């Protein structure tokens, strides 16, 4: 089962969910704000895709972090995971989990490849 992680009011997440619906791919939505996200899951994402890909530095959530937290996000994946678990809106969206592989951001081509379309 494909899991789409994000927040429900994010336009890119909405667009992603519509794409999966239109293609008929079975999926579920995991809302960071409603369902939360644990640091262990985020650690795995950081190990797989890296902080440069996973962390959204352009949004207001990142800008509102303390300078100390921003420094941790740059240098320490284990500690970064804890910060992101408390501030999940700093995570670039959507994160799409295909079971063995994760993607970050909107990527129809990669999703088609991974979902076997």
From TrEMBL:
SUPFAM superfamilies the record matches: Thioredoxin-like
PROSITE patterns: ARSC (PS51353)
InterPro entries (UniProt xref): Arsenate_reductase-like, Thioredoxin-like_sf
Pfam families per UniProt: ArsC (PF03960)
Family: Belongs to the ArsC family.
Name the UniProt record assigns to this protein: ArsC family transcriptional regulator
């Amino acid at each position: 089962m494909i899991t789409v992680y994000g927040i429900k009011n994010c336009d890119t997440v909405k667009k992603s969910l519509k794409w999966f619906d239109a293609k008929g791919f079975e999926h579920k939505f995991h809302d960071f704000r409603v369902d939360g996200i644990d640091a262990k899951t985020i650690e795995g994402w950081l190990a797989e895709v890296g902080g440069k890909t996973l962390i959204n530095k352009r949004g207001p959530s990142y800008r509102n972090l303390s300078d100390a937290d921003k420094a941790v996000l740059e240098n320490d994946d284990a500690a970064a995971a804890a910060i992101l678990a408390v501030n999940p809106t700093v995570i670039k969206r959507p994160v799409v989990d295909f079971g063995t592989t994760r993607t970050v951001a909107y990527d129809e081509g990669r999703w088609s490849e991974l979902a076997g379309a």
